[in-house]
Design goal:
AB_hydrolase_fold, AB hydrolase-1 domain-containing protein, 8-stranded mixed beta sheet, palmitoyl-(protein) hydrolase activity, 2 domains
Length: 367
């Protein structure tokens, strides 16, 4: 009976015997968690670095902040601009891109009754990297009012031209350093055409040209001044650099100062260079009678641009032989220079002094 039951019982398959781990595998197991964690961290940093490089234009240029920047109108700020009438004009860059300008003509008291030949002061404004030009018009208007009061009596008309970079406000295309350089040259050509029309009516009329840039706009101002020898038709008399930085490479280090992070080492991939430090050297190579004087206005509490950037630019400009004046608005933040009274006064004094010095060189001492 026992033998029969044994014959009927099914045979069980023998379970496979797993090979014992080799010694090197046993030693490798403790390193798996840190290796996986390190690989994850490297992957995340690599991904972020790639995103910073690919989308750098969206980080540097912010034409959609605030959301209505593209649809806002000059008329929305008419009351804040009081009796200053701003108008929108459109020009074309050399690549055919439509560019919007905000323009204003401010005639000084008694200018029409003066017997001498008129003097036209052209102030070209280059904005920062966010918002659109109409938002800045009330502050610019306040500064122009101070300039009119402080400026020399020989100045008859202040023509202010505010450039809206491509991709900003109602200008077409997308922003880039190369494209905005073309916009800057087109704006300068517009100023030259305007003065030529005035000169056709009065051949003896004079001009003073001041370029005023804020933050990233300071970089485009120095770009234009450094490239101006190619277009020597109209002299640039002065540059007013509000909260400038040396170059975008240094700004990358300022934003990511930690050496153990990879971001500051991405500078070879920057498409926007904006090197005002290098541009100073090119400007210094101009003939002495064509070199503009430079006014640097620094924000004492700047939360974006380190304070030493303005000092480095001022010292370098003097070292290469330029006439540089450096003023610090003590309690101002990066975007607060032109919104506070002390900052407005500083900008207005810089513009008024630039106009006075230019007219002094043209006419001799004012009587």
């Amino acid at each position: 009976m026992l033998k029969a039951s044994m014959r009927k019982a099914p045979l069980r398959k023998a379970s496979p015997v797993l090979p014992l781990p080799t010694p090197w595998k046993r030693h490798f197991h403790p390193f798996l968690p840190p290796l996986l964690f390190t690989g994850l961290v490297i992957s995340l940093y690599t991904w972020k670095c790639c995103m910073l490089v690919v989308f750098q234009s969206f980080i540097i240029y912010n034409p959609f902040i605030p959301p209505d920047s593209r649809t806002v109108r000059i008329a929305d700020f008419a009351k804040q601009c009081r009796d200053f009438e701003w108008r929108e004009k459109r020009i074309k860059a050399s690549d055919g891109t439509q560019i919007a300008l905000c323009t204003n003509e401010l005639e000084c008291a008694g200018a029409a009754s003066k017997a001498h030949d008129p003097t036209y002061v052209y102030i070209v404004y280059f904005q920062g990297n966010a918002a659109s030009t109409p938002y800045r018009l009330p502050d610019i208007t306040s500064i122009l009012g101070i300039v009119r009061d402080l400026g020399p009596k020989a100045a008859d008309v202040y023509s202010t031209i505010c450039l809206s970079y491509r991709g900003y406000w109602t200008s077409h295309d997308r922003p880039s350093e190369r494209g905005i350089n073309l916009d800057s040259m087109a704006t300068l050509a517009y100023v030259e055409r305007t003065h030529d029309e005035r000169k056709a009516k009065n051949p003896n009329c004079k001009s003073v040209l001041v370029l005023w840039g804020q933050s990233i706009g300071s970089g485009f101002v120095t770009n234009l001044a450094a490239s101006h020898p190619d277009r020597p038709k109209m002299k640039i008399d002065a540059l007013v650099l509000e909260t400038p930085f040396t170059n975008t490479r240094d700004m990358l280090k300022a934003l990511y100062p930690q050496r153990w992070l990879p971001y500051q080492y991405l500078w070879p991939f920057l498409r926007t260079k904006l090197d005002s430090y290098k541009n100073m050297s090119f400007i210094a190579q101009l003939p002495s009678h064509r070199r503009p004087e430079i006014h640097i206005i620094e924000a004492g509490q700047d939360e974006l641009v380190p304070r030493h950037h303005a000092t480095i630019l001022a010292n370098h400009g003097r070292d290469v032989g330029l006439n540089v004046e450096h003023h610090c608005v003590q309690k101002a933040l990066h975007n607060g220079v032109m919104t506070g009274n002390s900052g407005r006064q500083a900008i207005a004094r810089a513009i008024a002094k630039a106009v006075h010095d230019a007219l002094h060189r043209q006419n001799g001492p004012e009587k």
